[in-house]
Amino acid sequence: MSEIRRSYLKDLASLHRRRGRREHRLFLVEGVRSVRSAIQARARLSEILIEDKLAEDAAFSDELKKAGVPIHALSKKDLERISDVQHGQGIVAVAMSVVEEEPSGLARANSILVLDGVQDPGNVGTLVRTAAWFGVDVVLAGPGTADFESPKVVRSSMGGLWDVRLARTDDLGGTLQTLSERGMAITAADLDGEPVAEWNGDNTSILVLGSEAHGISDAVGPLLTNRVTLRANRSAEKRGVESLNVVVAGGILMERWLRGGSK
């Protein structure tokens, strides 16, 4: 275990903000399970910060050493300065960015999940986890989508962050236009689309999930090859639920899109 400069804790705390993460190309991974997942995935970590009482667990400390990075023991008070949760688990890893800021080579991907303005960090993290489970090649975030490397997204991804390629673009329309011109078919989840039971997911290279509040953005709509929807199976009298959560809808669509490993 080694010491760490107090002034450095302030720098790490800046990683809670998107601006700080983009400036330093670093982000925080908090919690025992998340840090273990990062180590098992051989994620690019720069260091691990651990509460001094937890550091007394020799077996756990030996497990952390497998990451091959410096491990710093801190007081609970110091660790709370960089923690994003009220009651942390006493461990935070500093990871190097995994998000491509200028995505290239997307046309070589067989399957791309696009998040078009999905704002809730919990939903974004769970969609990343779901995409990793179904074997999606790339998850691409457009403007307005929660940052993949924000603390809540990282926690919600439950390790999926390390199992799928992540990219973002400030010009989603332009990026999809280029992919469309290269022959990639684009399908979006949309209330006015064809029923999912009739959708041939094998003909889709790109699946777009839009904002729960606003749907697909104006920049994306004209580029779509197809639209697909999940029809409610209920009587006219039962309309208390207006729509599915984007994560639930996304999971159902991904299962049909990538079923049987055809991608």
In a few lines, what is going on in this structure?
This protein is of the alpha/beta class and 263 residues long.
How is this fold's topology laid out?
Elements: H1 6-13, H2 18-24, E1 26-30, H3 32-40, E2 45-51, H4 52-55, H5 58-64, E3 71-74, H6 76-80, E4 91-96, E5 99-100, E6 112-116, H7 121-134, E7 138-141, H8 151-157, E8 165-168, H9 172-181, E9 186-195, E10 206-210, E11 226-229, H10 246-258
Parallel strand pairs: 2-3, 5-8, 6-7, 6-10, 7-8, 9-10, 9-11
Antiparallel strand pairs: 1-4, 2-4
Helix pairs in contact: 7-8, 7-10
Estimated share of beta-strand residues: 15-25%
What class do helices, strands and sheet pairing give? Answer: alpha/beta
Number of domains: 2
Q: Helix-strand pattern, N to C?
A: HHEHEHHEHEEEHEHEHEEEH
| Strands ordered across the widest β-sheet | 5-8-7-6-10-9-11
**Major sheet:** 7 strands, parallel
- CATH superfamily membership of the largest domain, which one? SPOUT methyltransferase, trefoil knot domain
How many angstroms separate the termini?
45 Å
- Specify the overall morphology: elongated
**Radius of gyration over alpha carbons?**
20 Å
What this model shows, in words?
The chain is α/β, with parallel strands linked by helices. β6, α7 (121-134) and β7 (138-141) form a beta-alpha-beta unit. It folds into two domains: 6-97, 60s Ribosomal Protein L30, Chain: A (2-Layer Sandwich), CATH 3.30.1330.30; 100-261, 3-Layer(aba) Sandwich (Alpha/beta knot). The longest helix has 14 residues, at 121-134. The N and C termini lie far apart (45 Å). Helices cover 32% and strands 21% of the residues. The protein has helices at residues 6-13, 18-24, 32-40, 52-55, 58-64, 76-80, 121-134, 151-157, 172-181, 246-258; strands at 26-30, 45-51, 71-74, 91-96, 99-100, 112-116, 138-141, 165-168, 186-195, 206-210, 226-229. It has ten helices and eleven strands. α7 packs parallel to α8 and α7 runs parallel beside α10 (246-258). The radius of gyration is 20 Å and the shape is elongated. A seven-stranded parallel beta sheet has the order 5-8-7-6-10-9-11. Strands 1-4-2-3 form a four-stranded mixed beta sheet.
